Amino acid sequence: MKKLVSIALICSMLLFSLPGIIKAGNNSRKLCSREEILAEIEDIVALVYKSRDTGCEYRFSDIVGGKLADYLSNRINTHQYSLKIYNNYKENYIIQTELLSEEQNENEWVLTYKVITTYNYVYLKDIETYASDVVEITYNFKRGVMTDFYSPYDYYDIGIRGETGAPLDSFDKEDLEQRQKELRDEIDRVYQQELCVLPKKKKTPTRISGYLNSANIVLYARTNFHLNQPDSGDGVVPYLIFRNSRQL
What we know:
Layout: H1 2-17, E1 21-22, E2 32-33, H2 34-54, H3 66-86, E3 90-104, E4 108-121, E5 127-140, E6 145-150, H4 155-161, H5 173-196, H6 214-224, E7 239-244
Antiparallel strand pairs: 1-2, 3-4, 4-5, 5-6, 5-7
């Protein structure tokens, strides 16, 4: 009997030492390879960004945990609300993801991605825009799901969870809902404030202002205000490039 237990223990240790195999947990998902899990996570990243920026419909797969699914739904809906009031819709949308770093412990896998998006604003069809962002994702081995999704440069994440990105699990439902309501109210307040200072002939605020939010500007300013040669982005921190396609 002891021999059988020892063999089972050795087999178990070998299984979890294989770099290409990751246990998916108890959510009916079978053992998956590292590549399969990364592919699913990257699909979710692309879905979140595309639905955020274009207003398209979205539906999460079961790799997204329940609490995170609720958080991301509100995140996307808030961005889509801003898209609507500022009329900042985008088209010809292309997204690229690059895994920058990863850390593992017994229970979690923390992934940091660079996300680059290319698109045209619907009202600036001749101008091609590039935007860079960073997103940090946590995957729980035991549960087999993503449990966190945070961008240190996204106004929603900063508004709800602060610039340090407090873990999603540290917030209870009531606290999250209150913070989400306050952020939506702040969006409405800023929008109405912008309407009040517009010339009489202009009916809506400058559309591009809906993307160049103050949180991004503040973060960049804090990092670069004292430098003779400010950071250009290095492809990691958020940036925007506008290019006239007629000049290409």
